[in-house]
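User: Show me a protein chain along with its predicted structure.
Assistant: Here is one chain, sequence first, then structure tokens.
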Amino acid sequence: MKLVGKPNCGTLPDFGNFHDYDRYQGVEELMPFAKGVSAKSHEFDADGNEVRTDYRRMLKIVHDAGYRGWIGIEYEGKRLPEPEGILATKKLLERIRAELA
């Protein structure tokens, strides 16, 4: 990204797009260039936490990078209908945002 050198060119860190690479490290490395962030979710526990991704840890990385823009939601789970999965992800993001504020 530094070699591109264009202010209108950036990254879109996605919580779920790292398979053979540490997702937390990957998001941290992309955040300095982020133009948006994508919160991917699949499954939630009884407390409303995503089971594959530590959202507190991930959102701390996003927050500590100084990012204050939009966070898109992608629900790819099978247990909830898509609208419910999106709303569960939104609720989780809002809860953690309030904790970080």
